[in-house]
Amino acid sequence: MKKKLIIVLLSICIMLFGTLALAAENDGIDMLMQDSTTSSYISEHSSTEAEINTTSKSFFGTYTEETTNASNYVEISDTTSPFSEEVSSKSDEREISLFLTKSLTGNGTMTDPFLIYTADQMTEIIKIINKADYTNSVNSGTVYIQLKNDITANGTFSEFTNNKNPIIIDGSTDSTSTENYSIYYSGSTVAHGIFSLGTSDMSIKFKNINFGSSESPRSTYYGLCYSTDRNNSINIENVNYYAEAGGQPFFITGSNSSLNFSGNNSFTVSSNGSNNQEFAEFSGTLNFKEGSQTSIVQKSGEALAFIWARSNIDMNVEDNAKVFIQSGKECMIYPAAYSVNLNVSDSAEFTYMFDNNLTYIDPQTVFGDPLNYQKVIRSGKTNARVNKLFYNKQNLNISTANESKVNFITVDLPFQNGAIDINTIDPASVQFVNELNTNSALDSSTSLKVTNNSLNNTIYNLSKTEKTSEKIKVSELILPGLNSNIATNDLLKYSSIIYEPAVKVGDITSEGLSGFNKSESSPYSKISSRLTGVSSTLDASYTYKAQYYITNDVGVILDDSTLHSQYNESTPPTHLGGSIYSEISSLPSIATETGDQSTVAHLDRLFSGHYMVYGRLAIIPKNGGQIFYSKWKHTDTTISPYQVVTFPSLIDINENISYKLVNGKFGLTFNESATYPISNQSNQVVEVTLSRLSENTNNQVTMIPSPPDSGSNKLLFLNLFSTTGDFQINLGNLTSSPTLELQPYWDTQGSIKKFYINGKYSGPFLTRTPAVVDYNLDFLIKSK
Fold it and tell me: Which residue of 6, 208, 484, 715 is surrounded by the most CB atoms within 10 Å?
């Protein structure tokens, strides 16, 4: 019954289509008929009724109108339409099969980009921007093309030509780019590239786009971008590529080309599908931009090479960038004529892993802990029978910078063919490892040379593990300015060869401590530091010092060379910064927290505040030879402020005065030997001001700001004089009381002031009822 119903509806559609087509032909115009319940698209091409009837099914289907711009397009749901596309729904708003527009939207500027709903629209827009009048009169700047839908190319897109302005194709669905549109391919796997640059000196960026998927895994072996002209720049940002047939992402062979990766990218080809060739046929420079992460899986039955080189290749991994390549190809570089310069910058990582199983590590997990790798299981192997760096003996020149990592890993077949020349400037590690411990990492057809160009006078160890069940390690120390040349025959002995610092320091910890120990009457304000993850492969002929440098300049992180020049262990620690060291006789060969305790040191007498703390190890030969160093590690810490100021609790006037007869009359003199301290035990500079003199109920004497006149009675004039003679307080005149500055507790000269009393008093001097002096002194204390 269901089948019959479909036939009846189709017959109605055919009849309606014929009627409308004849009307269009008679009127000589194209028509788009719409009412509240139906909508049909009328072909622009004239046809007889009989011709229409044979093709009418292709032009009919249900539709829904887009509420934002319904007059511009209709949606065709009949999957037999020649305009229909394979799409995957990303959200409710994107559950569509096709948009047909009467006119293209946008002019390609940043504020009004071209909006693309179909592959045909992309072709039309490329034709527009290729014309000279577009760049001359419409848009002289960057061309912006924004995908608004998943699209499928069933052949070759038109070439970008002649437009010297940068072109950006963006597939982001929103401002956060958490979900991107996809470009699928349904044409021949040996066809021209999906996109191509047809002239020189062009720049194109593919941004926030998925090329293919596991549900639609077809591509072309001329790549998602094809270019044979010189000086072209292809830029990849946040792109995910997946193919199981025709899997070659790039064909870029023009001289002086550049292929640049930024953001997070993944490329996966892992199957024995047809025409799965190299990651790229390439000429020029590959740049993995600063901070980017790019993972590449290139495993297939066609096992020629990871890159088919058309020139010498420069591969630059910029600061903090990460590259992880999984290859099942017989060669890293093919054919024989060209070499590779691999430059790995500060804190960057480059990994090349050979494995001729189609199973691969999920690209989304390769930049985490290896213990957390997740594998995508694929049956079968590639056709690789060897693991060559080059098809024939060429040079692999590797340059490594500070804290960088370079890894060449094989799961079975050793790396062979070619000279490996490694120039290092303080890397974290360079390693060649065979995960099959019974096989070598490098074979005898390869030569290896490692040069230590340390800027920090760091000693390195070339550690070689023998491919035996005992896994015996052989150490070869490489001093700064020297290199190692391993005999090629010896390479067959080792399942791993790892170049890394001979003495390791994992990190540094610091804790700010401050307070006042009342029981011991001892203040403290210090930083306690230690190095963690420390170990050494050196023998007992070396001793060590844990060295620390501290500064209250937290605005910039000091580099190793600056710290090396500033550190001076003979400089006493000060409250402004300084250096300190802790003697260590030996270190463990494996990093342990127990061994790390020996590196503890305390830098005391520090102001409260925020500090940067740097630490390293000095490696000292017992025979008095050259001292070597680990690299500085740094951290920050805070010392909390605290305030303790001590005042005399009681000043006894009677202890400070004496009576004697002068010119036949009794007089009063002040005793300067009795002193009263004001002391600062804080970890801050404090300012002390005498703020108030308050009279108690027992007081019988008036405090006055100047010496009393003759005949006055019970008037007292007092000054507190510093024993150093540089400070005095007039107790009778607090309106102009000076401020006393006291340094923190470790400044033994400036943290305390001692005072004595001097002044004058008017009688009576002798009486059966002595006058009582009873005042309180209030001080204001604040940190400076």
Answer: 208
The residue written with tokens 């360079």 in the block is: 430
Give me 475's structure tokens. Answer: 């150490």
pLDDT at residue 63, rounded to an integer: 30
pLDDT at 35: 34
Residue 358: strand, helix, or coil? coil
Residue 116 and residue 147 in contact, taking contact as beta carbons nearer than 8 Å: yes
Average pLDDT over residues 495-504: 94
Nearest 10 degrees: Cα torsion 576, 577, 578, 582: 120
pLDDT of res. 351:
98
For residue 676, is pLDDT > 60? yes
Do residues 398 and 421 make contact, with C-beta atoms less than 8 angstroms apart?
yes
- Rounded Cα gap, residues 99 and 81, in angstroms: 12
Q: What is the pLDDT of residues 339-352, one digit of tens each?
A: 899 999 999 999 99
Are 111 and 101 within 8 A, CB to CB? no
532, 521 in Cβ contact below 8 A? no
Closest residue by Cα to residue 648 from 749, 571, 720: 720
Cβ-in-10-Å burial (0-12, 13-18, 19+) of 69 comes to exposed
Distances (CA, A) of 620 to 505, 578, 630, 780: 16, 22, 11, 53
- For 615-650, write each residue's pLDDT tens digit: 999 999 998 888 999 889 999 999 999 999 999 999
What is the CB-side half-sphere exposure of residue 208 using CA atoms within 13 A? 19
- The number of beta carbons lying within 10 Å of the beta carbon of residue 179 is 14
Please tell me the distance from the alpha carbon of residue 751 to that of residue 730, in angstroms, as a whole number.
Answer: 22
Residues contacting 7, CB < 8 A, separation 6+? none
Q: How far apart are CA 151 and CA 194, in angstroms?
A: 12
Of 566 and 18, more confident: 566
Q: Cα–Cα distance between 232 and 256 in angstroms, integer?
A: 7
Element holding 323 (H helix, E strand): strand 322-327
> For residue 653, what is the DSSP state?
H
> Does pLDDT of 103 surpass 70?
no
Read off the amino acid at residue 184: Y
Q: Cα–Cα distances in Å, from 384 out to 272, 329, 423, 492?
A: 12, 6, 30, 21
Tell me which of 273 and 751 has the higher pLDDT: 751
In terms of DSSP bridges, do strands 182-185 and 203-211 run parallel, antiparallel, or are they unpaired?
parallel
Element (H, E) at 4: helix 2-27
Helix (H), strand (E) at residue 291: none
Task: For CA atoms 489, 493, 494, 497, give the dihedral sign.
Answer: negative
Cα 146 from chain centre: 28
- Six token digits for residue 104: 């293209």
Is residue 298 within 8 A of residue 268, CB to CB? The reply is no
Reduced to 3 states, what is the DSSP secondary structure of residue 196? strand
Q: To the nearest whole number, what is the mean pLDDT of the chain?
A: 83
Instruction: Name the residue with higher pLDDT: 768 or 299.
Output: 299
H helix or E strand, kind and range, residue 227: strand 225-227
Q: Residue 363 in contact with residue 268, Cβ under 8 Å? A: yes
What would the mean pLDDT of 381-396 be, rounded to a whole number? 92
Strand ranges (E), 494-541? 494-501, 503-504, 507-517, 522-532, 535-536
DSSP letters, 72-119, are G------TT-TT-------SGGG--S----SS-B--SSSSS-EEE-SH
